[in-house]
Amino acid sequence: MDTNELMKEALAYHAEGGPGKIEIRPTKPDATQYDLSLAYSPGVAAPCLAIADDPAKAYDYTIKGNLVAVITNGTAVLGLGDIGPLAAKPVMEGKCMLFKHFSGINAFDIEIDTTDPEEFIAAVKRIAPTFGGINLEDIKAPECFEIERRLVEELDIPVMHDDQHGTAIIASAALINAMYLSGKRIDEAQIVVNGAGAAAIACARMFLALGARRDQITMCDSRGVVTTRRTDLNPVKREFATSRPVTTLREALVGADVFLGVSTAGVLDADMVRSMAGNPLVMALANPDPEISYDEAKAARPDVIVATGRTDYPNQVNNVLGFPYIFRGALDVRARKINETMKLAAAHALAELAREEVPAELAAAFGVDRLEFGPDYLIPKLTDPRLLGRVAPAVARAAVESGVAQRRPDIE
Ligand SMILES: NC(=O)C1=CN([C@@H]2O[C@H](COP(=O)(O)OP(=O)(O)OC[C@H]3O[C@@H](n4cnc5c(N)ncnc54)[C@H](OP(=O)(O)O)[C@@H]3O)[C@@H](O)[C@H]2O)C=CC1
Ligand SMILES: CC(=O)C(=O)O
Ligand SMILES: [Mg+2]
């Protein structure tokens, strides 16, 4: 469908049947005077007093344990940039809808009107008692790193910046499987990361955890390659500064095995893709428009494996494949945090699921007879009903094994 037409339909979708994409509804009987005397005064005093006596009872008598806040300040909304907290709200409502749809987690969005990290941290800390977990979204780098670090450290519920770790987990799953398909090794791969913000830094760190070599990662920001010669780098960019004698993305890509784009639309061209090594992986993940379109990248050379963040092409590398299940696993075992072990478990669970046989109904839903692990089916489809049963338990198990779980539903 033509993009203008799609945008028109998207506006109608958001407006019709009541504005927005989510609502709140009661879950207990509320029809009679007696129901209301239990739900509200005087009965509600009983759970209040129980929680005052033992805060853990909030998980028995309130929605807390299955409620996540999706919180932003609107400073890096998709690839649209700093459009502010109110304009970010449709994306945040969308994340809430996806939480509920894919993992049964209730979520609502909170848009905080500040660009000051301290004010943001203080606001999130003050509302944290309401929630079982906090999904930070679309907060720009480098502030997002300190915001997340502080909130993880200072709160006792799982906090995850989705653009960092959700993205890193899915990109890692795609990388694992692309290496498997091309017969290459992660520790030998030349990787070029375009973007040096939230998603880029977290992806690069996770690639290191998977075995990539720091001296084989080249990162670029809006000014070109992040090199040790530059004097304008913040500390997180410095972590990936290269001494390679290259200054542009075009130079950096010659002979590269992997391109990861988490930057902005249209910065990769067919010649750059052609200059890469054999069987390259191109992950062009900028939303809504990727660094290069799926079709243009595929047309550049026959051996390329292409992923984008979009639903309308094969290989959707998008954090929606992660956050519903990561939080599901974390909430199920009441994990205090989402740690590296849990993230790696999620990435491997996703990669393994893609290598299994695909149910015929799922293939049919995508209008094809068969879906089979290969260059155009690198990671699971986001509507794969097996995701919940695979990724969430893998995350929960990793939480238990790494000592951050506060309950073991399997043995209770
Ligand atoms: N598919 C998915 O699941 C996800 C996709 N994304 C996409 O990734 C992109 C970045 O998101 P996020 O990391 O949250 O945002 P940030 O604002 O944290 O980072 C954006 C980064 O992109 C860099 N950049 C901007 N223009 C260019 C350019 N022309 N060439 C190279 N680098 C450039 C910026 O450079 P500088 O530092 O110089 O300003 C910055 O480092 C967005 O398009 C977003 O939609 C993000 C998360 C998930
Ligand atoms: C997918 C997502 O979170 C983003 O593009 O920002
Ligand atoms: Mg995002």
From TrEMBL:
<dbReference type="InterPro" id="IPR001891">
    <property type="entry name" value="Malic_OxRdtase"/>
</dbReference>
<dbReference type="InterPro" id="IPR037062">
    <property type="entry name" value="Malic_N_dom_sf"/>
</dbReference>
<comment type="similarity">
    <text>Belongs to the malic enzymes family.</text>
</comment>
<dbReference type="InterPro" id="IPR051674">
    <property type="entry name" value="Malate_Decarboxylase"/>
</dbReference>
<feature type="binding site">
    <location>
        <position position="138"/>
    </location>
    <ligand>
        <name>a divalent metal cation</name>
    </ligand>
</feature>
<keyword id="KW-0560">Oxidoreductase</keyword>
<feature type="domain" description="Malic enzyme N-terminal">
    <location>
        <begin position="19"/>
        <end position="152"/>
    </location>
</feature>
<feature type="domain" description="Malic enzyme NAD-binding">
    <location>
        <begin position="164"/>
        <end position="400"/>
    </location>
</feature>
<dbReference type="InterPro" id="IPR046346">
    <property type="entry name" value="Aminoacid_DH-like_N_sf"/>
</dbReference>
<feature type="binding site">
    <location>
        <position position="287"/>
    </location>
    <ligand>
        <name>(S)-malate</name>
    </ligand>
</feature>
<dbReference type="GO" id="GO:0046872">
    <property type="term" value="F:metal ion binding"/>
</dbReference>
<feature type="active site" description="Proton acceptor">
    <location>
        <position position="95"/>
    </location>
</feature>
<dbReference type="InterPro" id="IPR045213">
    <property type="entry name" value="Malic_NAD-bd_bact_type"/>
</dbReference>
<protein>
    <recommendedName>
        <fullName>Malate dehydrogenase</fullName>
    </recommendedName>
</protein>
<dbReference type="GO" id="GO:0016616">
    <property type="term" value="F:oxidoreductase activity, acting on the CH-OH group of donors, NAD or NADP as acceptor"/>
</dbReference>
<keyword id="KW-0479">Metal-binding</keyword>
<dbReference type="Pfam" id="PF00390">
    <property type="entry name" value="malic"/>
</dbReference>
<feature type="active site" description="Proton donor">
    <location>
        <position position="40"/>
    </location>
</feature>
<dbReference type="InterPro" id="IPR012301">
    <property type="entry name" value="Malic_N_dom"/>
</dbReference>
<dbReference type="InterPro" id="IPR012302">
    <property type="entry name" value="Malic_NAD-bd"/>
</dbReference>
<feature type="binding site">
    <location>
        <position position="318"/>
    </location>
    <ligand>
        <name>(S)-malate</name>
    </ligand>
</feature>
<dbReference type="GO" id="GO:0004470">
    <property type="term" value="F:malic enzyme activity"/>
</dbReference>
<dbReference type="InterPro" id="IPR036291">
    <property type="entry name" value="NAD(P)-bd_dom_sf"/>
</dbReference>
<feature type="binding site">
    <location>
        <position position="163"/>
    </location>
    <ligand>
        <name>a divalent metal cation</name>
    </ligand>
</feature>
<dbReference type="Pfam" id="PF03949">
    <property type="entry name" value="Malic_M"/>
</dbReference>
<dbReference type="GO" id="GO:0051287">
    <property type="term" value="F:NAD binding"/>
</dbReference>
<feature type="binding site">
    <location>
        <position position="137"/>
    </location>
    <ligand>
        <name>a divalent metal cation</name>
    </ligand>
</feature>
